[in-house]
Fold each of these.
Amino acid sequence: MTEKHHIIDTTLREGEQTPGLLFSLAEKKRILDGLVKIGVTEAELGVSSKFHPCPESLIDYCRTTHPHLTLSLWSRCRKEDIIHASGLAPDILSLSIPVSDLHLQDRLHKNRLWALHTMAASIDLARQMGMAVSVGFEDATRSDPNFLVQMAEAAQHHGAVRIRLADTVGIASPTQFTTLIDTLKKAHIDCQLAVHTHNDFGMATANAIAALEAGASSVDAVVLGLGERTGCARLEEIVGYLSLARGVQNLRAEFLKPLARYVAQITGRTIAGNRPVIGEDIFTCETGLHLQGLQNKPETYEPFNPENVQAERKLLFGAKSGRQAILQRMTQLDTTFSGQLNDGIIQSIRDTATRLKRPLNDTELIRLLSA
């Protein structure tokens, strides 16, 4: 998986759907600046609606400051929203239509034929107005696969350049996403395939990666995984995995932490110390066998170098540390150290750390050794 992958960041649309959250224009610009540094190639700037407008000034900013960034807007399959979008001239208009009977019948009181006709007419209208069209299938993972294929065939026939499958309530598994992508490919759906994954069961990132491995060309991501309920696939995890574990060259993991910290600051979020890729403590270790491995060859217990994500390795010594790890650290701290650690010294180090309820610093280690 070393080829380029297309990430559609939807922090400014899906992320802003987080209850109580609204970004200012200045904040949106700074978020976009960070996304471009990371290597994101498309940003969904917001919703096409006169009631929730995407500022023209934001589009102008992107056109002048980040001319290579693809700009998209999300839109319902409604004539007035499509016409509104045409005045903003996005690179791609992302039309959304539900495809599960649950949403069609129980939410909208419509049927499958209505969905087919509405989608087709909306694609035609958007294209007549000069816009490239992506079609998002809402609740795709709970739809009838045969109807999903029928909708995809119709979307492709009417000129959609991309079909985006939404796991609207986050119930799919990686295997299900693989099957879904395979089903569309076997049906000769040749336009781009993308996925929009929610994190209700903690599988948003895994589902996105599984879709890419199955042949999808694009995945949606959100900084910090913001969004409805438990949010969406986290940009940090997707970029981190693709660039650091799979060698995707167009993504820059070293810029993830500054953007994540900024978004956390303006949204009042806290980034947990053990948060994948961007947590402050993910390179901190105290356990004996792990310490020994990290001291000798960091790759034994680290999936990537700390420097790749602007982090530092922290080796702690205390109640969980083994003899060899402590011995190696003592040798580093004191060149006159004889290289012998009896059971009494080891036990003293562990007892002291247990009493203090924390690992020991270097000064304390030396003091115990001297004693």
Amino acid sequence: MKKLISLFLVLALALSLCACGEASQSAKSAPQADYAANESFVAEEEPMWYSDDEGVYGLSSAGAPLAAGGDSDAPAERPGKIIYSANVQAETTDFDGSLAKLEELVAEYKGWVESSSVNGSKYDDSSRGRVSRRSANYTLRFPSDRFDELMGSLSALGNIPYTHTYTENVTAQYYDVQARVTALSTQEQRLLEMMELAETVEDIIILEDRLTEIRYQIESLQSSLNNWDRQVSYSTVYLDLIEVQEYSPEPQVQPSFGQKLRTALKDGLHGAGTFFSELLLFLAEALPTLLILAAVVLAVILPLRKSRKKRRAKKAAPAPAPAAAPAEEERP
């Protein structure tokens, strides 16, 4: 009995060894290009580590985020990526002089005019209280490292009643996209190496499809990086320059009711005076034309009225009485 059990165990061990050998041999004899369809093989790369103000992060070559790590091989802290922009409204009593000063500022700070437009034309008739109001709109680009200095120099254009500065921190997004581009570039190189080893047309088609997809992703992400680089390197200033006769008064903090009432009365009187003065000037300018039109109207209307009166007089005159018939002689 013991011999039979021992023999059975020996046979079972031999069969298991044979099965393992066959599996190993089948794995070795598999086509070499079969790994082309296995995307996990392409994605097996060293994780890409980067850091920002919040810590150290990593991405796998497939773009999957990894947990924060404290590996001493992690790269040093990357510089911040901050986009600066501002909206500025400026008032000037010397429109042409302010435009010339703006050109000097653009040249001094090594910037350029991305777009511009000027509205209105120079027209001055101060004797009648009429002065045109011109305006200009500019989109300006300046080096970001001189952004604060530039904002302080805009007061040379005139009065600055409104300014608003925007900042956008794209550091995390920038290095995240950069890491994905690096990982995809590594995958692209690996796919090119695999195409050299491919033996069948089907394997080549699979690899080319995957390569086209990766290259499209790289171009899209690289375009985003280039756009961020331009915005980070050069800040944007949107400037509205307005020609005025008087600068806007400094804003008051919560004016009282009396101040509001005085301001309303002053504005109302000023508006009424402006209206009547403009009306008087209009009538003075239009008086010759009005006199000529009145003469023409009278020359046409008076004859018509006279002829109409004559017709009415004829209609109103009584008709002549008919002649009486001779009376018949009375019979006896």
